[in-house]
Structure formats: structure tokens, C-alpha cells
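Box 3.1. Reading complex inputs
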Amino acid sequence: MEEFLQHIINGLNLGAGYALIALGYTMVYGILQMINFAHSEVYMIGAFSAFYGSRFFNLTEHPGWGSFFAALALAIVACSSLGLLIERFAYRPLRNSPKTNALITAIGVSLFLQFSGQVVFGADPKLFPSVLEDYALWTYGNVQLRLFDVTILSVACVAMLLLNFFIQRTRVGTAMRAVSFSFRSATLMGINVNTIIMVTFIVGSALAGVGSVLLGLKYSKIDPLMGTLIGLKAFVAAVLGGIGNLPGAVVGGLLMGLSEEMVVAYLSSTYRDALAFGLLIFILLVKPSGLFGQSKVEKV
Amino acid sequence: MSSAPRKSVLSVKDLHVSYGAISAVKGISFEIFAGEIVSLIGANGAGKTTTLRAISGLLPCRGEILLNGRPTSSIAPYNLVTHGLVHSPEGRGIFLNLTVEENLKLGAYRRKDTQDLPREMEHCFELFPRLKERLKASAGTLSGGEQQMLSISRALLSKPQVLMLDEPSLGLAPRIVQQIFQIVQKLNSEGITILLVEQNARMALKVSHRAYVLETGKVRVSGEGRVLLADPQIQAAYLGH
């Protein structure tokens, strides 16, 4: 029982990370009906910018909240800028060409960033800077709730609540939902669709930045190819929740994290990665629209 | 009519639009003066909707479109609304994933004078009381008639100088069609210039000052609404006599 509780805590942590990344996939899909495969590399760049930023500003000398939020800010800024650049220079020129072209370009950008990362950062794994010191906040038998666990869950929660407020309550958020419904009608309202798409990439990438720092704290190892697997899992999480659906991405991410943790704990860690792909095949067979996705019914 | 020269608000000269190899509009010219209701009528495929889309900058086109004397090609499509050109499109263009209220507010997305907004919203509710009851409802749950009311109200909140309405009567019950056309006349009397696209030629001609009859991408006939209404050829071709 105690062991199970510990696995729940770990699973939620991992799941919160997946959820943050899955939101980026699902937001871009909601607007452009395109899978931004370069999103996993945005996540990777987030981790590396926190790494080099911490070094440059000596953040690890005084670990604590100040350093933690500084690293977070660095990752957010780097990811948002990168997301913006990718949209502007890789995807926008293909806005009116067939969807496959954009998809292939996304894969190209993803590979480009992975291997540029190997050239620039080096292929060997690095240790995520300890910008915050971990300790047990609460112990019950063998179960420990540590500072990192609470930090990860609360920062992820705040980020998601802010996102929800932005999308549901603000003028730009409303415009974003309008654009996701119809470019043409949105243009007639005076909405600059290109600006809204840029904002979508900025916000989605910022969430990946948050995810990179949170997961970096907990799992510490970073390398230029780190985005591939985690990105794919987050993508599966988004599909599980119903691609294009924001709450779906969060639920999908948490389910993904929890089930991965359970598979590792009670089956074998060998099957850790098989789970994600097994799950993907299962969803596509049983409910391709995902848990919260709706197959589109249009009223005339 | 002969005294002061009338002010042209929208002028279309030799407009050509094609979808790939198929040309849908083949050299249409027309002009709308301030305070008028002008209709484009014609059968399916005559090029009416295409013409409106081209004016709104949603389709690439050749020819010249002048809004208050200024070529619209020099204005980004999403900025046209700030120049007073507002388009309630075919199919009503409602965001079915948003609430009625959010749809209305998007009508005022580019407005800077938002302090007048509550009063103007009330004005819309006077025209269409039904909308007030459904304010918090998802626009996807509205009936066709309610969606049309929402589309017109939302366009009004953009503060149009010229309002382009594409098939406002499409798919509506006759009683609601009557109501929509009355409101079109009321809006016109409040000073809005209206460009109306309709398949319901009889209703359109009744309310319009002038009309252009389109046929396969060209202007076939044009003239005053009531003159066209009495024209035996028009009656035979479009009014089902």
C-alpha cells in the first residue's frame, strides 16, 4: 500500500510533465490541424537553456526559489522564442500548401534541432543544474513526499490554470478559439490570424519550457536527443485525451505518467516505453477521437 | 436625387475571380452609394458569394475595389472591418465552439470605443430579444434563425458603414425571413449602407433601392429594385411567374 502511494506521487509528477508538453501539441493541432513534431526539441532546448543559463548566472551557487524561478524564466523565454522562429520561418511559408508538406517540414525541423544540439551541446548527457535543493517534506513509513514533488505539481497546476484563464477569459484567448474554428470567419471579425498563430506557438512552447525545468529537476539527465521519447509520449497523451482538446491533454498526460509508473513498478521497466505505443495502437483501434475528442458533427 | 452628387462608398470595377482554372466572376462592375440598399441577385453559381468574398479580401482577384475611394488591395483583409466594411458571410460564420456572448464580443474585437458597447448590445437585443435569453448558451445550440440573428447582431457591433449580408434568408421560416428583411430596412434607415446577396429575389428586390442581376459571373441587368420587380423577363427568370 505504502509503495503504491509512492508510485502515485511519482506517476503524477511524470504525468504533470507529460501534460505540460501535451498541451503544446494539442494547442497547435487545434489551430493548424498539424502535429508540430519539433515541439519535443523545443522541450529539449528548454532544458539546455536552463543548463547554460544557470552556469552563466551562477544559479547553482545559491540554490533556492530565486534560482529556480530564474531557470524557469530562462527556459520559458528560450522556448517561446524558438517556437516563434519555427512557426515564422518553417511553417508559415507552407500555410497554404498541403498538410503533408508541413508535417514533413516539422519532422525535418525536429531532426535538424536534435543533431544541431549534438554539435553545439555535445552528444554526452549532462546533469540538470541543481537550482533547488530537494528534501523530504513529509514521511509516512516508506512514503516520502519531497519538495520537488510538491514544486512540480504546484508549478504545473499554476501554469495550467493560467493557460485556462488566458484561453477562456481574455480577448486574445477568445480570438484563439475563434481562429481554431475558422480562419475565414475570424478574419472577418478583424482578427489577424497570423498573430494568433504566433501567440499559440509562443504559449505552447512556454509550457514545454516549464515542463523541461520541472522534469529536469526530478530526472536530472539531459541530452540533445532527450526530446524524442518524451515528446512521443506526450503526443500519445494528447491523442489519448483527444487531440485539440486542452483538458484532454492534461488528463491524457496524467494517465500516461501514472500508467508508465505502474508498469515500471509492477511489471517490468523493460516495458516502460512499449506502454506508450501499445496505448497509441489501442486508442487508434478503439476510440480514435480520444477520451474527450468529438467526431465533428456540423449543423447546417 | 439630382441635386448633390451621391457619395460612392463601394465601387467594384471589372472584377475577375477564379477558382483554379474555373472563373467564377468574369468582369463584374457595380457601385454602391451612401445610404443605399443594393442587392446582387441571381441563381446558384452566378458569382454572388464569390464577389462578396473577393471584396472582403478572402479570395485573390483582379480588378479594382474602392472603399470610400481607397483601393482595398492596400488594406489587409483583417483591417477592412476597421474601415467600416463588415461582412456577414454565407453560412453565417458563427463560431459554434463559442458562446453567443463571446460571438457578439468578437464583433467588437477591433473597436476602441468599447464604452458604447453595452448600449449597442441592448439595441441588438431590442431587434432580437431571443439572443438575450441565449446569451450564455453555446452558439452551436442555436437554431438556424437564431444563428442568423446572431450573425447580423455581431456584424452591427463591428459598427459597419457598409454591411454585406450573404443570403440572410437562407434556410429560414417565412415569418423569420419577413422579420430579417424588416430589420435590414430598419438598419438602412439608421444610416448603414447595405449590400445584400440573395436568392430570394422577390424579397430582395422589394427592399432594395437598386439591384444587379448576375448570371454566370456577369452582370446581366441592373436597375431600381421596383422596376426590376415589374420587369416581365426578370419575373419569368427569377420570380417564378
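In summary: Chain B touches chain A through 30 residues (CB under 8 Å).
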